């Protein structure tokens, strides 16, 4: 299980060693534990959301020559989301040839200092936390340990934008709406269960991953309220506005072929599926 505030032992001692980059020597880095080390010009809600995006679909790198960069790669359908990040941070966008994806990249030093100060303390994904530490070493920024999450944190929305889904599947001849988040490591989805409830199970397909989900009407409505009050910018957000209609048709049993409302159900499904294209 991931424990907020955890870093590798070398980081807990305030020291961490990384490989030399060219002729540049990496010095030991400090680890901060409070907001006093944070300096940013971005709203807290944006920083939390951005950290969630980076934890899910981003990476922070240090080149062999010691230059730092941030990259976020998402599907073409989320180009508006990446453009929003570009508007806030600067940087560039490039379509990935043959991958049906777009890559956002930021590499100028001043921009990297600003964005590291923004997400510092909000990054918590196992791999991304190590990347943050290496980049902050180069930029001489003390690392802030991950801040405890609560139901008001926009991190959940950002990570969902990256690794979440809203779907409807037939189960025992009944439609089942579910909200899910998947990741390779258990600790990287466990925060959803701690804060919002739901269940986590292991799926052995695609080399294995952990899947957090909520399916009961009560839990789905609770998540809908959360997303409506938080930053949520991926194409998946369009389906949020159809959840109320889904439950109205479900209560009418419109999903049954012999229902007088079945045409309305088919029209709803057509609209639901088109929103993900």
What this model shows, in words?
- This protein is an alpha+beta fold and 277 residues long.
- It has two domains: 44-139, Homing endonucleases (Endonuclease I-creI), CATH 3.10.28.10; 163-274, Homing endonucleases (Endonuclease I-creI), CATH 3.10.28.
- Helices cover 38% and strands 21% of the residues.
- The chain has a four-stranded antiparallel sheet with strand order 2-3-5-4. It has a four-stranded antiparallel sheet with strand order 7-8-10-9.
- α2 packs parallel to α6 and α4 packs across α5.
- This is Homing endonuclease LAGLIDADG domain-containing protein.
- Residues 1-35 are annotated as: Disordered.
- InterPro entries: Homing_endonucl, LAGLIDADG_dom.
Question: Topology of this protein?
Answer:
Elements: H1 9-12, E1 31-32, H2 44-57, E2 58-62, E3 68-75, H3 79-89, E4 92-96, E5 101-106, H4 109-119, H5 126-139, E6 143-144, H6 155-163, E7 164-171, E8 174-183, H7 190-196, E9 199-203, E10 209-214, H8 217-228, H9 243-251, H10 262-274
Parallel strand pairs: 1-6
Antiparallel strand pairs: 2-3, 3-5, 4-5, 7-8, 8-10, 9-10
Helix pairs in contact: 2-6, 4-5
Summarize this structure briefly.
By secondary structure, this protein is of the alpha+beta class.
Mean pLDDT: 85
CATH superfamily of the largest domain: Homing endonucleases
CATH fold category name of the largest domain: Endonuclease I-creI
Let me know the largest β-sheet.
4 strands, antiparallel
- Note the total helix count: 10
Q: So what's the CATH class of the largest domain?
A: Alpha Beta
